[in-house]
Amino acid sequence: MLAPRHLPLAALAGCALVLTGCTSEPGGDVPRVAAAFYPLAWVSEQVAGDHADVVNLTTPGREPHDLSLGIKETADLDRADLVVFEHEFQPAVDKAVAALSSGSAALDVAEVIDLTPLSEHDHGDTEVGHDHGDLDPHFWQDPLLMAELAGHVAERLSTLDPDHTEDYTRNAAMLAAQLKALDREYAEGLASCERDTVIVTHDAFGYLERYGLHFESIVGLSPDAEATPAAVGRLQQLINSEGLTTVFSERLASTAMAESLARDTGVTTAVLDPIEGPGEGADSGEYLRLMRDNLAALKQANGC
Questions:
Q1: φ and ψ of 229, to 5 deg
Q2: Would you state the pLDDT for residue 288?
Q3: What is the pLDDT of residues 41-76, one digit of tens each?
Q4: What span, in angstroms and rounded, lies between the C-alpha atoms of 204 and 101?
C-alpha cells in the first residue's frame, strides 16, 4: 500500500514510514520520487524500475551546485512520496526539504553514506565557493558507495510500496553487481601508471584517490570560483616538475581556467566529468558510461 501522493511531505511524516493508517489516493498506485541531482536520480531510477516515477530536480545540462527551485521543482517536491537529496550540497533543496518534511519521507545521503572528510583530500584553493561543511559530497565517484546508496533506496521504496519489495531488492542487487564490476575496472586499470598526479578544475574527484591517484584542483569545491595566482603558480610548477601531460576541464563548467593553465605550460586538455549532471543532447550520457569514459581519460593522461 502506498503513501498518498496528494499529501505534502509533512503529512507523510505522520505515517512514520510504516504507513500505519495511511491510505492510497485513488489512482495513486506508484510512489513518486524527487531526486535532487543526477547521480541520485540515476540510482533511484535503476532501483525503481517500472514501479516508481522518478524526477530529477536539476535540469540536464545545468550545474547542480547553483540549483534554484522554480514552480515545477517545488511542485515535484510537494507531490513526492520520497525525496532523495544530499544535505549541504544544494542549499535550495535543503531549505525546501526542511520546510516540507520532518525527514521521514526524505532520504538524506549524507546520513547513510560514509562521506570522506575534506581534510583527507583537499588539494585545491578553497578560498571561495559553496559551503559544503567538513565532508566531501562527491561520493558518487566511488562505485562502491553508489552500490550502498542503491540498497538504501531499495529499503525506502519497499517501505512505501511493500508489494514490490522483491523487485526493488533484486534491482538494487543487480545494480550493485554492475557497480562492483566498475570498481574492479578502475582498480585494475589504474594499478600501474607512469604518473599518479591529476590536475582538475575543481575538487570533485577525491573519492578516486583510493585507486592510487592524487588530485590537484585549480579551484576548490566550487566550479565557478576564481583561481588565485598562487594556486596557478603552484600548479605550473607541479606540471613541470612531474612531467604531467594533461589538465582536465569539465563538461558543465567553464573550460577557461584549464585551457589557460594548459596553454601556459604547453600540455594538452581533456575532459574529466564530475558526473554531477547527465548533460543534454549530444553530451548526454549514462553513469556507467561516463565513469568508463573518465577511466579511459585517466589512463591516457597518466600512462597507465
A1: -55, -35
A2: 95
A3: 999 999 999 999 999 999 887 778 778 888 999 889
A4: 29
Alpha carbon distance 4, 29 (integer Å): 9
pTM greater than 0.90: no
Q: Judging by DSSP bridges, how do beta strands 197-200 and 214-217 pair with one another? A: parallel
Residue 203 identity = D
Inter-axis angle of helices 38-48 and 287-302, nearest 10: 130
Q: Grid cell 544544494 — which residue?
A: 90
What's the residue count for the chain?
Answer: 304
Strand partners, 85: 108
The DSSP bridge pattern shows strands 268-271 and 246-249 to be parallel
The 3-state secondary structure of 269-293, one letter per residue: EEECCCCCCCCCHHHCCCHHHHHHH
DSSP result, 158-173: HHH-GGGHHHHHHHHH
Kindly tell me the burial class for residue 87, based on how many C-beta atoms sit within 10 Å of its own C-beta (0-12, 13-18, 19 or more): buried
Under a CB-based contact definition with an 8 Å cutoff, are residues 138 and 204 in contact? yes
Q: Find the distance separating the first CA and the last CA of the chain, reported in whole Å.
A: 52
Per DSSP (E only), the strands in 201-245 are 214-217
Provide the Cα torsion 291, 288, 77, 149; round to 10°. Answer: -90
CA distance 190 to 71: 45
Helix (H) or strand (E) run with residue 32 in it: strand 32-35
No. of helices (H) and no. of strands (E), the chain: 10, 8
Q: How far is CA 301 from CA 10, 188, 246, in A?
A: 49, 16, 6
Question: What b-and-e string marks burial along 117-134, b requiring 16 or more CB atoms within 10 Å of the CB?
Answer: ebeebbbbbbeebbebee
Longest dimension (CA), the chain: 67
Sign of CA dihedral 72, 77, 81, 82: positive
Alpha carbon 80 to its chain centroid, in Å, reads: 20
